[in-house]
Amino acid sequence: MHVLVAPGKFKTTVKAAALADAIARGLKRAIPHLEITTMPLPSGGLGSMDIVVRALGGRVRREQIVGPFGRPAETRWAMLPGRIAWIDAAEVVGLGLKTRHRDATRASSHALGELFQKILRYQPERCYITLGDTIVNDGGIGFLETFQVHFYDDQHHVIGPGTSGLERLADIDFGALTPPTIPVIGLYPYPYPVAGDSGTTLQFGAEKGVPEFRIPLVDSAMQRYGELLEAHVATPLTASPGAGAGGALGLALGFLGAQLTPAVATAAELLHLKQRLTSCDWAVTLDEHIDKMGRHAVAGEVARRALDVDCPLVVLTEGIGSGYEFLYDLNVWGIYPWLDRPRTPKEAGRSTTTLVENASFRVGMWMRRMGNPKRNA
Fold it and tell me: Which CATH number applies to 2-41+272-376: 3.40.50.10350, 3.20.140.10, 3.40.50.720, 3.40.50.2000?
């Protein structure tokens, strides 16, 4: 039998490649002669660049920038074959900075724009920017400043960085706007809106360091800001799927004319997931948590493409929430927890790859009993 192993990452602690190797080891213990192809999938956050470079080739480059808190920092980006630039926003204004300090009230997305402008020296033909795992929530104001968009308060003073500046925003000067000279594609993990109950601020503002009592104020300011951008381009930007991604960096990209697309679906196309599934008898994937949002995550994307080629799929997960049932209509044969018993998050985090390997062994024993479903049919 031939199995495709195509997991996503687990939070920001275990990379998808490490999980793919753990699943492969567990399956091999159960079925020693099993043929396995590992294909970790990027979910649009930290680590996405490393996966695509590993799969497609290319070169990771480093640049010196001014980080989101105004201090010098080093960041990474990649030039893929075909002169395609790839940026993980998490590497520039997110968790890739490996800083314990999270304060979205002061954090600016200016660093992302600075890096983009430096990348233009290499003359890429287009640029992908993933928008997950950021620590900013400024709506991309800092990013747009590098395209000569200017932001003022009601006294016509330049606003400061972060959500503190966003709350003071009263007017935007678009007179010197210089749009990107190459196509830009923003890759969002989930289609969160710009504002409202499901918006970026109410969903992630607290974990990015916005004080609880200011979250409704920042959310209202984000909505006003989005309306100012919409009025200039006469386009309903705030309603675009993915506009809220990255602390509403997606909104800023959409304003500049970038295409916003689901990260996992785009990666699946670039990595030829469907073609890989065609030659496989089984597929195994892993997602951190399975619920209704799984439609936009790794499990949902693998399931859709597995259905197209009639490849049975097994999903490993840490937990299940409401709305997961849709997966069973997409050729998913089983959803299995990789936790062997109740564990604290700290305990599970220390043993994630071992637990995943052992769970994969149990799945492999089940597969051995089931045999090859395509041949059995």
Answer: 3.40.50.10350
Separation between Cα atoms, residue 258 and residue 80, nearest integer Å: 19
Q: Which amino acid is at 97?
A: L
> How far is Cα 266 from Cα 112, in angstroms, rounded to an integer?
21
Cβ-contact 160, 168 below 8 angstroms: yes
Distance between CA atoms of 154 and 285, rounded to whole angstroms?
51
What does the pLDDT look like over 167-204, one tens digit per residue? Answer: 999 999 999 999 999 999 999 999 999 999 999 999 99
pLDDT tens per residue across span 46-94: 999 999 999 999 999 999 999 999 999 999 999 999 999 999 999 999 9
Number of Cβ within a 10 Å radius of residue 48:
31
- 3-class DSSP state of 272: coil
Interatomic CA distance for residues 109 and 68, integer angstroms: 6
Is the pTM higher than 0.90? The answer reads yes
Token digits of residue 248: 């509403």
What is the rounded CA–CA span in Å between residue 22 and residue 358?
A: 9
The whole-angstrom separation of Cα 48 and Cα 89 is 10
CATH code matching the domain that covers 48-264, chosen among 3.10.180.10, 3.90.1510.10, 3.40.47.10, 3.40.50.80: 3.90.1510.10
